[in-house]
Amino acid sequence: MCDAQKEPATSTAPPAVQFINVTKQFGSLVVLKNLNLSVTRGEKVALIGPSGSGKTTLLRTLMTLEPIDGGVIEVDGEAFTHERIGGHLVPAREAHIRRIRGKIGMVFQQFNLFPHMTALKNIIEAPVHVLGQSREEATDRAVSLLRKVGLIDRKDHYPSQLSGGQQQRVAIARALAMRPKVMLFDEVTSALDPELVHEVLQVMRQLGEEQDLTMLIVTHQMGFAAEVADRVCFFSEGSILEQGPPEVIFHTPAHERTRAFLRAVLDA
Ligand SMILES: Nc1ncnc2c1ncn2[C@@H]1O[C@H](COP(=O)(O)OP(=O)(O)OP(=O)(O)O)[C@@H](O)[C@H]1O
Ligand SMILES: [Mg+2]
From CA 119, how far away is CA 170, in angstroms rounded? Predict the structure, then answer.
């Protein structure tokens, strides 16, 4: 994913995701502090940092699962909070928020599959009911996604009949079925037995090859971050303390706080 492989035209396009001075509080606890982050289309960004530093909160605000208290979040140059109608900026209506949110897919630590639906049914549910796709179209796409995550032979299994790694791969396929432009991953391997981690990382590696797909990945797997990410952002206390290419952040970080964190996770 070096820059030379990306389309030159992306430089004129708005960022895929932009946080501008975003603040988020839970009561008196300020969790994101005037946070700025700009992610270009197709960029793979790893978010690392200590527990409680705001990584999950950042992803949740981008999914509109958490309202923000200050600043602006834009996706493809459009803010969630406002929309342009007849040349005027007006407060966003629900349809506008839904349309922007539809560009984003998220996979969580817990897979949250529908337990009473097979793998295939889990994947076609939202495309049929939210996007209005025909059952045939959604099924065709689900089959190709199951093939992509290596689970076509498990399509009629229920979540309870799948391993954690298989369930997580179904969850990734389910998010991809909505054709998101941006995929968010929040520690998707941390609930898995160690021997199942690699199969999920392998699917994410494969996604990392897709030049148009923007990825924000919260992970404690530093080796994986180094391999897949174009950029690593180190979070500390609700801000990005430093960021840069993996080789810089992992080998010559500027801040002692980053060095201490990396020592701790690499020794663990
Ligand atoms: N719904 C909530 N209500 C109150 N406080 C919250 C809520 N969600 C998160 N917090 C607090 O916000 C801070 C940031 O939490 P967040 O989950 O974003 O951290 P994180 O960087 O993802 O940590 P971890 O690596 O442990 O997942 C923490 O202090 C947490 O306790
Ligand atoms: Mg978290």
Answer: 6
Q: Which of 174, 156, 146 is nearest to 117 (CA)?
A: 156
pTM for the full predicted model: 0.92
Cα–Cα distance between 90 and 156 in angstroms, integer? 46
Q: Is 56 in the pocket of ligand 1 (CB under 6 A)?
A: yes
Q: Which atom of ligand 1 is found nearest the CA of 66?
A: 1
Indicate if ligand 1 lies below 6 Å from the C-beta of 164.
no
179, HSE (Cβ side, Cα atoms, 13 Å): 8
pLDDT tens profile 8-34: 555 578 999 999 999 999 999 999 999
What residues contact 257, with CB distance under 8 A and at least 6 apart? 234, 236, 241
Report mean pLDDT in 10-residue bins for the chain, 268 residues: 47 90 96 97 97 96 94 93 86 91 94 95 97 96 96 97 96 97 96 91 94 96 95 97 97 96 88
Q: Which of 244, 261, 206 is nearest to 228 (CA)?
A: 206
